[in-house]
Amino acid sequence: MLSPLDDYPVHQVAEPVRQVATTDRNFYDRYYFNCHPSSPELFCVIGMGQYPNLGVADAFAVVRTGDEQIAVRASRELGNDRMDTRVGPFRIEVLEGLRRLRVVLEPTEHDLAFDLTFTAAVPAVLEPRHVLRQPHGRAIIDSTRLAQTGRWEGTLTVDGTDHAVTPDTWQGTRDRSWGIRPVGEPEPPGYAAAQPPGSFYWLYAPLRFDDFSIVTILQEDATGRRSLEEAVRVWPEATGREPEPLGSPGVTLTFTPGSREVASAVLDFAGGVKVEVETVLPVAIGAGGGYGTDDWRHGMYLGPLVVQGRRYDVGDAAKRAAYFCPIDNLATARCEGQRGWGLFEFACFGPHEPSGFTGWDDVA
Questions:
Q1: Which residues pair with 242 in a beta bridge?
Q2: Which domains does the chain have, with CATH numbers?
Q3: Would you say the pTM of this structure is higher than 0.90?
């Protein structure tokens, strides 16, 4: 079970690196990126994951333009080298850890390709450990994540149109997460099959302004009780300033009528810090991205190597809701006189008392 990574001093347990510390089938190790030109013209979401206990590596890219999402995705057998971050036409190169990464999708017969380099604007933030348990105690999520804002440079081709990606206007966020979360083919539910489905309320908002970035994360149950929350302001490394904890975030949401999608939000923090957010371009990450109820999910075994292209009509909230997935909104924001851009990721499934939702089907 040895691999090339075992020649590096990175071991955490008394096993070869290829052998993760848990036998849980749902162990994963994933990259996530998004990219946009600081305008509602398009929003690109990219991801790559490895699933050592399922023997799978996969990657995807989804671009929203107009009423359509264009997706390219690939899956392969993981093999024995976890340093090999290639999946078909996709690859990721860590040029400088926690500072610069290159993300590539080579041209295929599908309508999307890119060669993009991410450069961090602020130091990476280590978020609180995320643990979510079923009623009988099994942890279905137990993960660690880092988040970061930055700028992009390179080329992006969408549907035959070439975009010159320059760091003066193209920016985005990224995260890295690893641990346990539901992946691959559905597994037998056991005891959980006899229990009513639990509500899910999730808000994740890394936002970049001229002089700083703010990262907000929270999860609530049906009553509004939080199992995860954090808000932190992060300054560029050159300032020498330490990250500033902003306390428990207060959240006021305005929903798009007839849906559970967020049109605008106000985030209130300690010390009178306030962020006003407006969503401008939603991406249903279940439509081609491997989240939700599409015909492909992260970690599913599809064979030695498969590359697919898909197009999705996501022109209204009802069509996006059909994928039963979080919505990754490209968003603008204002804070202390500065305008910012970033991700406003949101999902609310099932009852949620603070939002006025009493069931699974009611909407704003």
A1: none
A2: 4-185+198-355 (2.40.370.10)
A3: yes
